[in-house]
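quick one before i forget lol
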Amino acid sequence: MNLIIPGIFLFILWMVKIIEVLFNIDLSVFGIYPLAIRGLPGILFSPFIHADFGHLFNNSLPLFFLGVALFYFYSEVAIRVFILTYILTGLMVWVAGRNAWHIGASGLVYGLASFLFFSGIIRRHFRLIALSLLIVFLYGSMVWGIFPGTYENVSWESHMLGFFVGIVLAVAFRNRGPQRPVFEWMEEEGEIGGEGEEEKLELDDEETKGLRDKEKKG
């Protein structure tokens, strides 16, 4: 499952591009065109459409790596996170994007990267934090893609909105999936601390009674 779903998704992306080239057709009309009825199907189809093989290749490697990481570390919520990132990013681009055709899976890439990074930080799980740091190391430069004008002919709206969706989902699913482990020594410390506090309260009560007796005698 960790490799199957990301692998199948990537296979479909490449097959779509190969068919487009072999039959000399332009599928960009199936992209997202904001606030237009004709652009609504792009919410579902735009991630499968790329301008050229360079565009497809640039999205393929991070998409596969992030997809595998999502299904491996967050297997309990992976499918829901993947689908929600896919749909919500496309929907928000349709609502808030520029009047142009938006194509490519980069919004999904930014959404998954954002979810994996912030989810690890929020959960404070050492393995997931290590994954967060790895993502920063590998794809930290991607953050510049969320700003307008950084890259030419690139849908920075898809990047920014995908990034935002990833943060929202990291917060929404923070209590689902892997959680920070609680070790036995942490529980023992809690129990010892609790007993100490009870003893202290008992001593305080005895001291208080003693003071009251002295006041009565005085």
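fyi The radius of gyration is 26 Å.
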